[in-house]
Amino acid sequence: MALIIVETTAEQPLTSEFLLDAHERVMPCLTVRNAIWRYSLLASDRQRMICTFDAPDAESVRESYRQGGVMFSRIWSGTLMKPDGFAPQQNPALLKVMEATYPPLDEDDWRAVNIKTLHCYAESGIEWIQSYISWKGTKVIYELNAPDLESVRQVQAKLGIPWERVWSAAVLKD
Fold it and tell me: Which of the residues 1, 17, 68, 172 could staple to 40 if both were Cys, CB 3.0 to 4.6 A apart?
C-alpha cells in the first residue's frame, strides 16, 4: 500500500453537509479499489483540506474521487517522515499545517533540514509531529503543534526556509 495525499482548495468554505456528502459518495469507490481513509486535516477557514489514504496507488484514489464526483486540487503519492526518537501527538488546540515546495531533496537531505529546524522549533514552543513528502522530494506538508501561526512563520524566516501556506487545522476521523 502507498501513502496517498489529496489536497483540496475551495473558493467557499467547505460546509459540514458538503463534507458528509463527499465522504458518502467517495467511500464506496475507495473501498472497491482497496483504499483506506486514514484521516483529514481541515483548515479553520474551511477552504483547505488535506486527506490521507493508504491505497494501492494515487490513480486508485483519483479514480474514486472522479467517480464519486468529489472535487480535489491535487492527488499525489508520498512518504511519511517523523522525528527520530520520540513521537509527539497531534494536539487539537495547537495543530498547525505548513506546506512548502523545495528543489528535489533525498531522504538524507530531508533529515538534515529537519535536524536544523527542530532546535529552532523547540525554542519557539513548536513541536514537529510528522511530514508528508512527495515521491519526487519536492512537496512537503508538515503537521506541527504550535502556539500560533506567526511563530511558525518566524522560525521559517529565521532559518531562511521558504513555505507556501501555514494554517490552523482540525483533524477529521471516523
Answer: 172
* 10 SS3 class: coil
**pLDDT tens figures, 58-96:** 999 999 999 999 999 999 999 998 887 777 888 888 999
Question: Is residue 142 domain-shared with residue 108, that is, in the same domain?
Answer: yes
Name the domain count of the chain: 2
Give residues with Cβ within 8 angstroms of 26, minimum separation 6: 64, 65, 68, 70
Per residue in 29-54, pLDDT tens? 999 999 999 999 999 999 999 999 99
Residues 6+ apart with CB under 8 A from 108: none
Q: Looking at the structure, do residues 90 and 19 belong to the same domain, yes or no?
A: no
Which domain covers residue 91, as residue numbers? 79-172
